[in-house]
Every structure is written in structure tokens, then in C-alpha cells.
Amino acid sequence: xxxxxxxxxxxxxxxxxxxxxxxxxxxxxxxxxxxxxxxxxxxxxxxxxxxxxxxxxxxxxxxxxxxxxxxxxxxxxxxxxxxxxxxxxxxxxxxxxxxxxxxxxxxxxxxxxxxxxxxxxxxxxxxxxxxxxxxxxxxxxxxxxxxxxxxxxxxxxxxxxxxxxxxxxxxxxxxxxxxxxxxxxxxxxxxxxxxxxxxxxxxxxxxxxxxxxxxxxxxxxxxxxxxxxxxxxxxxxxxxxxxxxxxxxxxxxxxxxxxxxxxxxxxxxxxxxxxxxxxxxxxxxxxxxxxxxxxxxxx
Amino acid sequence: xxxxxxxxxxxxxxxxxxxxxxxxxxxxxxxxxxxxxxxxxxxxxxxxxxxxxxxxxxxxxxxxxxxxxxxxxxxxxxxxxxxxxxxxxxxxxxxxxxxxxxxxxxxxxxxxxxxxxxxxxxxxxxxxxxxxxxxxxxxxxxxxxxxxxxxxxxxxxxxxxxxxxxxxxxxxxxxxxxxxxxxxxxxxxxxxxxxxxxxxxxxxxxxxxxxxxxxxxxxxxxxxxxxxxxxxxxxxxxxxxxxxxxxxxxxxxxxxx
Lengths: 299, 257
What we know:
By secondary structure, chain A is α/β, with parallel strands linked by helices. Chain A has helices at 13-19, 31-37, 56-69, 84-99, 110-118, 134-141, 156-165, 197-202, 205-208, 212-222, 234-240, 254-273, 277-284, and strands at residues 2-6, 23-28, 53-54, 73-77, 104-107, 123-125, 147-149, 170-176, 244-247. Chain B is globular, with a radius of gyration of 18 Å.
């Protein structure tokens, strides 16, 4: 199993590789996009946040470092869907990245996927595509996807069924941080720019507490820390065919990402060193490793 | 005059026949009835419960379309059963809300009418940004291509998506939801009512949430079941081949006002 890690800033490639990173994903806002749309149209799901997106100059540095260390880098153009005028700029950005040998593109828009297919650019299907069933995977394979990121709110048994039914793609799952309660593929708010809609409800929990039972659900979904972990399930994930574990959240400080990376790497090494799932579970759920209570990804 | 669609989505199947009989005099406004659910598979049980409704609508000379939520893998077996049962009972078409469902329908029921549901049009919908002038040409090309490629009969959109542009520039039939627009769906709060002891989400839910809604104070945002929606502010719709009247949201709107 390999670890997919957010990259920011570019000069952290070295320390993240040492911490266990096997691949990087990153955001990119080219100048021509900014000139065309100011900040009105997002190029990716973190498009409003300039500090987590690379420019032409910095992404070249990042890609050169990734090549130097022999790790693949993927650029994310994962806004749900692009308009005609946006698409022209996305194609231009992909061509630019292709010149600097980017390993692949993360996207969910079918037109972007199709374009990548025509220029033989590998693609990873973003979780923003609504991939909750086997037929969706078959559908997106028509557009040449090589790798599919499964949604955060899918169960392990669903994961197993889907993977068993859809051959010839690599599978990536969320493993750490940012367990959003909502389905990202149908989150249609202006995410992050004006304050997230989900947080508007979260910040007013008393509204939702109509009765005792409902209060319980509010506690479960809204009052737990946002960070989440799925480490205790990687033994099972490995068995069913997941190859990439994704550490989420490009906005987190680099030091947090590095520590998380070490933790995931430790879990993978542990998995490889034991001969049964129960032995793995005993060790991984130790006090040192399992610090987030029941705020789990796949429970 | 535009044709109208009456959406009875989210209404439990047992309540639908009674509603249709009570409202029979006002049904002349509509040529099509939507049944099913946009958001939740739990509301579609049992698969055989819908045949009476299809018969009733056909007796009233209305077309019946079944609205399918995003297909979750754990409902795959039930999905195939209910689609098969509905087709056998003469359903006129389906409204699909994810590409997997579209792909299945195209491959297995190619002669049926397929409508692209509003969850597949993912333009941003947020009342806080509705007046942002920097937004340009919001109608995504992806949807236009899909409608042509798979011979879909129509695309259903939320009103505020259409308000950005552009009926003039696209050549596909458009149905417009007139009361509310959707902004997100989520893991359902109510599912925990019936959660298994081990806390696994995905266990069957029998909670009847269709009458439960919660407003965020001082905003048009409300939560209905597992969906977040906004009440529509506009009174008139300029561009639409069909107008979709959501009966549940209409009821909520009238309760509030």
C-alpha cells in the first residue's frame, strides 16, 4: 500500500518522502485563469485559497523535486463540472503541466477526463464524482480513468463489492483527517468562500435538538472533532485491493501532514509484519495510535 | 403554456394514492407525476408498493416518472428489483441522479425515457453567492454532452442555476424545480435511530422523516431528511419547458409563510 499526501509548500517534498509519502497531490491556479475569472470561478475545491495552490513558478519547482525523488505528482482539477469557457483554461493548464511531466490529473468532470484521455494523460477520478456504486465506476472507465478515489462515506463492504466488480483500475481511499459529514459529490455550496453551509448548521446545534434522540445524532455528527482516522481498517483494505491511502486536507500545516504520514507509514509497516488481522487490530488500536475515539472513517 | 410536473417525491408510497384522490380536481394543471425520492433509498421500500400509484396516475391520463436517489452500492440488489418491478408495471420513465444509475438504465432499459435529475447538475447553489457578478456562464458542458450522448429526454434543474444564463444557448428540454433548490445531501442524522449496536451506518432506517424539517434562523436554508435546501425567493420563472412543483417543499413554504 502507498500513501498519497498533499504537497504544500513545494520544498517539503524531501521531508515528506522521508516520512513515508509515496505520491503527492497538489493544486494549481495559472495566471490565465485568474485573468479570466478573477476569483469568481474556482479551479478546484480549494480554489478560493491561494496559499494552498501553486502558481506556474512554484509548481515547476515542485514537479522537479518530485522527479528528483522519484515520486509521482498529481494535480487536482476537481471542481464538480466546468463550463465551456472554463474548460478551455483547464486544457491549457493541463498542457502546461504535461510539458513538465506531471504524472497525472485528478478530476471529476467528464470533459476533463476525456481531454486527458486524448493526450494520454493518466487520470484519477476525484471523490467529487458521485462514485457510490459499481455502475458509476464502469461509466467513468469509458473516459479512461486509471485510478478511482472512493467517497469518505462509503462502507467497507460496499468498497469490497465495488472493487470486486470493477477490474483494471487502482483504488484510493481516505485514511486521515477531515471526515466531512456531507457527500462531497453533491456539496453544492460555495465551499469555504462565504463560510460553509454545513458549519452554519453545526454552529447552531440547539436548532437541531428537538428531542433526546435527535440530540444524540447531533452529538455524533457535529460535536466530534473534524479529524478522522481509518487506520485500523487498512489490513482489510489491503486484502480487498485498495492500493493508495489518501491523507486529506491541503490546508493543514506541513508539520501535521508529516506526522500523519509517519503514523500511516507505521500502520502499513505493522500490517506487513503481522500474519493476521486480529494481530494487526490489537496493535493498531493501542492507546498511542487510536486517539480519536469513535470518530472513525469506516465505522 | 408550459406543461407542469407534480413532484410527490419524498412522500411515502402509502400516502401518495390518498393525496392524488384528494387533489384530483387540481391535477389538470399537470401532465406528469414524479414519485420516488431524490435523496433516500429507505423511502422506496417496498418495491411492489408503487404499482397502485402507477395505475392510478395512468387512469388520470398522467405520465409517471420514478425518481431515483444516488445509488448506494448496498442498495444495488433492491435497485434492480424495484426498477424491474416498475418497468413491468408500466412506468413511463426514470429520473436519475448519478451516472451509475444512468449507465445501468441505458444498458438495460434503453427504450424508457430517462431524465437527468437536478443532483447531476452541480453548479454552485448558495444563497450567499447568488448575486456574485464574477460568476460566468454557469451551465456545465458535461451535462449537455451527456444528454445528447445518451438520448435523455430532459434535464431537471434548480431555478437559481438557470437564472445565471442561458436557455437560448442550449438545445435541450429543461424542467425547472420552482420551490426550493438543493444545496447538499449528507449522511443522514436519522439513520442513527436504527443503528446497529456496533454503530455501522447503513442499517435499515424506518424513521418517517418526510414531515420533519428544520430551518436555520434568519435564512432560507432548511434541512429536510438528509438534504439541505433553500426556499426559492423568485416568483416567476422565465425559462422552462416544464415547471416542477415539489409538493413537500410547497407545504413547508406555506407553513412558514
